[in-house]
Request: fold
Amino acid sequence: MEPCTFCRIIAGDAPATWVEREEHAVAFAPLPDSALAPGHTLVVPVEHTDDLLSAGPVGLAATFALAQRVARAMRGALGATGTVLLQASGEDAGQSVRHLHVHVVPCWSDDGTVHWPEPPSAHVVEGDPHAALAEMFE
Reply:
């Protein structure tokens, strides 16, 4: 099986515009045509994992810790007044590359965009969905 796009980037077999490389997570620019804002950055664990549900604790912690540092850098270097983290797990959520990744998107008051799902889901769950979730932890 051919390595995924992000594994190829991490291995140096595909070009990337690097923001940061660490032992367990890396950050790089998305393809120019897919950038949501100036400075939009992808943060991924070095170890391949398909998605949030299959991630191990080390890669997951490193990925989100690096995403936080990238967001702080966006504030300092780009003057971003906010950031949005976008993460999709699974095809039905819109995940296009089967390697866990977090989009860190800088925001400004004049950027004219909203990164929030609209409209809300039309899916219906019988009963109280939060009670069902809480039962999974008992």
